[in-house]
């Protein structure tokens, strides 16, 4: 092989090696459930088919004088494969083949200045052996929801070396005078000098196989393999000396059988679909029992949470922690669920006047809470019956600016007033005033204190 062949061979080898390493490294962190050890990963195959001197990509070959005159002829091609599957997506395959490639031309093709320059109409290249290392990429599946697929599509690319000997004939039916046959003389490419010859029977050429195919699973061991491969060489003597200095190429169409090695108790990784495996495992009885047990635990926890959050008197403290159960609706309580005593309450109690608990509000809100309705309804009835008056003093906690909190306290006082008016109390008997952050009844340094300061006090 010349320097160009060696260089391209090295580049292709690096590409295949890099792809193989990346997929192998990925497979070392198993992407299939249970790891590769639970699958069969080795297989061997036998295949046979035909060759043509052109590919589906088109273009001319070296032997043809013109593209339009070049003729495809069919030759036989057969071989063996050994493959290791590293994951459900990638495997490495060692492939060996032998066979013949045939071609001819309607017009006579001159033979590059060979001594006693004769004219050739046909050429037959014997591929005595060809070996390549291929990366095989599985592209798609059918029967997606089954643990094992019935059909797999794949693509492959690799790097190989072949030993071949082209023979050119004067007739277009591969008979007649042998225009060119360098068997036993390969090793020197200066064909015009018949004294400078080598002693090899075959010419060694590097090539890159690129192909696609499909596999049909026939049983747990056997699969039918159909494929098409284009083989690109760095050799302009694939069909012998020719008028055109073009790199030789050929294609082979093949069919064969692939046999998976190993115990039949294990599945073939080639036909395994991890997504379908996951779907199948979700239906496993032991896993479903475990899921049901988890559901029971969640249900028990939910029941416990419901018990812990139960608040029979609606004072905001759960029954489990309420030290003063049965608190009247609207009563302001502390963290233990007991009523908070305000100075005004003590004074009013001493004078015998009625007392109404302050109306509490959420943070930055002047919307009445539903638990305040009972207190306000009682106040409205008292005012209607006695035709009395009431003063509503609105307050806010210390978050925000003083001006904002002043407006917020006014809105809170007016919200209580509007409720009383809607309940039939004369608006003239109600005064509503906002005092902002003034007169806190608890510390604004804690959330518990700030909650108490967000209020409207009722004064009769």
TrEMBL record:
Alphabetized PROSITE patterns for the sequence? OMPA_2
The processes (GO biological process) annotated in the record are: monoatomic ion transport
> Could you tell me where this protein is found in the cell?
Cell outer membrane
Kindly indicate where the leader peptide sits in this chain: 1-27
Q: Say yes or no: keyword Endoplasmic reticulum present.
A: no
Q: How does it sit in the membrane?
A: Multi-pass membrane protein
Q: Which domain of life is it from?
A: Bacteria
Q: Which controlled-vocabulary keywords does the entry list?
A: Cell outer membrane, Ion transport, Membrane, Porin, Signal, Transmembrane, Transmembrane beta strand, Transport
User: Which Pfam family is one of this chain's hits?
Assistant: OmpA
From start to end residue, where is composition biased (Basic and acidic residues)?
447-460
One Gene Ontology cellular component term attached to this UniProt record is: cell outer membrane
Q: Where is this region: Disordered?
A: 437-460
Residues covered by the OmpA-like domain: 348-460
Main location per UniProt? membrane
What GO molecular-function term can you cite, just one?
calcium ion binding
What is the protein name for this chain?
Answer: OmpA family protein
Q: Which organism is it from?
A: Sphingobacterium humi
């Amino acid at each position: 092989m010349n320097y160009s062949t060696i260089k391209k061979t090295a580049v292709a080898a690096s590409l295949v090696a890099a792809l193989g390493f990346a997929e192998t490294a990925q497979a070392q962190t198993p992407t299939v459930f249970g790891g590769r050890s639970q699958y069969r990963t080795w297989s061997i195959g036998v295949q046979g088919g035909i060759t043509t001197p052109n590919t589906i990509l088109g273009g001319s070959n070296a032997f043809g004088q013109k593209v339009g005159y070049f003729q495809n002829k069919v030759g036989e091609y057969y071989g063996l494969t050994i493959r290791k599957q590293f994951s459900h997506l990638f495997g490495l395959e060692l492939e060996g083949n032998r066979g013949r490639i045939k071609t001819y031309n309607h017009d006579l093709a001159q033979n590059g200045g060979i001594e006693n320059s004769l004219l050739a109409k046909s050429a037959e290249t014997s591929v005595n052996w060809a070996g390549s290392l291929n990366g095989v990429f599985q592209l798609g599946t059918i029967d997606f929801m089954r643990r094992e697929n019935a059909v797999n599509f794949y693509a492959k690319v690799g790097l190989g070396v072949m030993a071949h000997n082209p023979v050119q004939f004067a007739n277009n039916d591969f008979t007649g005078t042998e225009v060119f046959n360098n068997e036993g003389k390969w090793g020197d490419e200066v064909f015009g000098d018949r004294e400078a010859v080598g002693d090899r029977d075959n010419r060694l050429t590097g090539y890159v196989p690129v192909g696609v195919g499909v596999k049909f699973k026939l049983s747990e061991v056997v699969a039918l393999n159909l494929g098409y491969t284009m083989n690109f060489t760095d050799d302009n003597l694939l069909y012998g000396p020719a008028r055109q200095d073009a790199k030789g190429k050929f294609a082979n169409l093949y069919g064969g059988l692939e046999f998976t090695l190993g115990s039949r108790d294990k599945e073939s990784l080639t036909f395994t679909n991890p997504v379908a495996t996951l779907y199948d495992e979700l239906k496993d009885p032991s896993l479903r029992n475990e899921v049901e047990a988890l559901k029971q635990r969640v249900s028990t926890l939910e029941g416990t949470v419901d018990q812990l959050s139960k608040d029979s008197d609606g004072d905001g403290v759960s029954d489990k922690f309420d030290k003063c159960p049965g608190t009247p609706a609207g009563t302001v309580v502390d963290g233990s669920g007991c009523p908070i005593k305000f100075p005004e309450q003590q004074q009013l109690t001493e004078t015998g006047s009625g007392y109404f608990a302050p109306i509490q509000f959420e943070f930055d809100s002047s919307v009445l809470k539903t638990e305040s309705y009972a207190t306000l309804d009682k106040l409205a009835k008292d005012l209607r019956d006695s035709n009395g008056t009431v003063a509503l003093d609105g307050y806010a906690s210390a978050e925000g600016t003083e001006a904002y909190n002043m407006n917020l306290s006014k809105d809170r006082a007016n919200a209580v007033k509007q409720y009383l008016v809607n309940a039939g109390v004369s608006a003239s008997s109600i005064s509503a005033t906002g005092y902002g952050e003034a007169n806190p009844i608890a510390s604004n340094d804690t959330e518990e204190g700030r909650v108490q300061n967000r209020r409207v006090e009722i004064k009769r």
